[in-house]
Amino acid sequence: MTDVDTPATVLARFARSPLRPGLTAAELDAVEQEFGFSFADDHRALLAAALPVGRGWPDWRDGDRDQLREKLAMPVEGVLFDVAENGFWYAGWGARPAAPAAAATVARGFLLTTPRLIPVYSHRYLPAGRGTQGHPVLSVMQTDVILYGPDLAGYLKHEFGGERPSLDGVRATVPFWRDLVR
Q: Is 171 exposed, middle or buried, given 0-12, 13-18 or 19+ CB atoms closer than 10 A?
């Protein structure tokens, strides 16, 4: 990554969606307060530089609040679907209850303690957490989790610029989710 390859400059170069003025510090703080998380520093910097809008992008300024909540819940709800419908069970949770509904209830309790994933675009996510940056971007569809970029700028180059990033040596950084990466 060069000095000009910040997530914001990569997005400006490759974006196929409109870019609106970035969120102010007060708007970012309000979103974090409303939804109960903190953006990772690089995610926050991107959204402060430009707010991409359109299909697939969470519109943190003017978006439907219920849809944003659903987008935030999708990673956990996807895991719970696989627990109830597809027999998924994470070894770290101990013995699986026999009934799917009971298994989902136990899994939900464990998932409340996992790091929160924040949507970047479509089903691509970064972990929450002020004071953190450089996390690999994860593509999350139920328990199908893959690395989609070595970091936010590398992800944007991949998703929108068609550049295949090297993921050699890149590991997901957050507990539970890293264990699902295939």
A: exposed
> Is the separation of the CB atoms in 117 and 129 below 8 Å?
no
C-alpha R_g of the chain: 17
**Amino acid letter, 149:** G
CA-nearest of 176, 167, 140, 153 to 49 is 153
> Cα 38 vs. chain centroid, distance in angstroms?
12
pTM, two decimal places: 0.92
> In this predicted model, what pLDDT tens digit does every residue of 49-83 receive, in sequence order?
999 999 999 999 999 999 999 999 999 999 999 99
Q: Is the dihedral of CA 7, 36, 54, 48 positive or negative?
A: negative
181: DSSP letter: B
The CA distance from 116 to 83, in Å, is 18
* DSSP state letter for 112: T
The H or E element spanning position 77 is helix 65-86
Which amino acid belongs to residue 45?
A: A
* Structure token pair of residue 132: 């953190």
